[in-house]
Amino acid sequence: xxxxxxxxxxxxxxxxxxxxxxxxxxxxxxxxxxxxxxxxxxxxxxxxxxxxxxxxxxxxxxxxxxxxxxxxxxxxxxxxxxxxxxxxxxxxxxxxxxxxxxxxxxxxxxxxxxxxxxxxxxxxxxxxxxxxxxxxxxxxxxxxxxxxxxxxxxxxxxxxxxxxxxxxxxxxxxxxxxxxxxxxxxxxxxxxxxxxxxxxxxxxxxxxxxxxxxxxxxxxxxxxxxxxxxxxxxxxxxxxxxxxxxxxxxxxxxxxxxxxxxxxxxxxxxxxxxxxxxxxxxxxxxxxxxxxxxxxxxxxxxxxxxxxxxxxxxxxxxxxxxxxxxxxxxxxxxxxxxxxxxxxxxxxxxxxxxxxxxxxxxxxxxxxxxxxxxxxxxxxxxxxxxxxxxxxxxxxxxxxxx
Length: 402
Ligand SMILES: Cc1cc2nc3c(=O)[nH]c(=O)nc-3n(C[C@H](O)[C@H](O)[C@H](O)COP(=O)(O)OP(=O)(O)OC[C@H]3O[C@@H](n4cnc5c(N)ncnc54)[C@H](O)[C@@H]3O)c2cc1C
Description:
Elements: H1 8-24, H2 43-58, H3 79-88, H4 97-110, H5 113-124, E1 130-133, E2 149-153, E3 156-163, E4 174-180, E5 190-196, E6 203-208, E7 217-228, E8 232-233, H6 239-250, H7 265-278, E9 280-281, E10 284-285, H8 290-312, H9 329-348, H10 366-377, H11 384-395
Parallel strand pairs: 1-4
Antiparallel strand pairs: 2-3, 3-7, 4-5, 5-8, 6-7, 9-10
The protein binds flavin-adenine dinucleotide.
């Protein structure tokens, strides 16, 4: 892996991360943590994860590549190393996943110096949780169709509208939001803002229940929310450009943001193999069944292909189109996660009907939950169909879909 290519400074930082994580890995909580940040529901879960993120930030493992003036570490290409080491260390994921992965790089690229200094340090330390208000009941894949309006009123803006599927809004202090400021042009009529969510007059957050039975996302209603103009991000009418920055990071096509932690792909595959060795099929371990071994090998080959694709994307001479590999990331990862969970369901057989809370459920019901959750991954941040359209149009040069 990339360790071999580390500069002396990066190698030193990697060793520092390893040592720090070995000494500071938190003990398992005495309550259940959900599988990912966007399923965090209880105050207990929030507190545990926010404290962990704060500790990582104070140790220099978060915001590594951001300038020091806005609370960052002032380094270059250190975040990817911290993320790799966090993932290998089998430690909890970061709660502020939308803040770190989307809001922070968008603010860095489009915000004023005052906005960067005001928002980024508290975002990194998880004192403020962030959410993303893009999708609406009538605007998902067709993001430019958003209708939530922002109307200028002197030095203020008045926001009215309805956002939906807003992950983490139930804990969030701030939302990055795409609003319509003019109906003259679909794209140039959009402007991007930062809006207060917590206890703000004119904002209602209503949790939604997912197929998993858990909450995690919400609908957010705005009725005459008043915000000052200094919460506008970039120029009036430039919202679509700013939103494209957010989406490049959200879909993993741009590097340098986000945070590691949580389960790596290798760990998921190891857990799948362990499950196959434990579960019985025709009187023997499922692992003995050649069809199961074949399915697992195919998944492992795809995971390795993605890893090698990630390395290849960094070598200009090996890429025929600069965005061919980066733009595939979201599609490939979400579909691989879904297929890993589907093979686990097949291995479990009838046991797959035992869910969380059933003491006889293999792996405490982890796999059926992962299987149900995996459908969300292929929808969130742009559906698989939309990702294929983007690859077809931008990389292969196929005609634009209507
Ligand atoms: C777990 C989860 C978390 C989410 N978190 C957030 C969040 O924090 N903030 C936020 O703003 N949004 C969030 N979303 C919303 C997400 O971005 C949208 O669900 C997604 O963009 C799809 O929009 P839609 O649901 O309106 O579906 P639609 O756009 O109505 O699509 C319906 C179906 O039509 C297909 N389709 C649509 N257009 C095309 C086309 N041109 N070509 C081919 N097929 C097409 C789609 O692939 C899909 O199968 C989240 C969603 C999920 C599942």
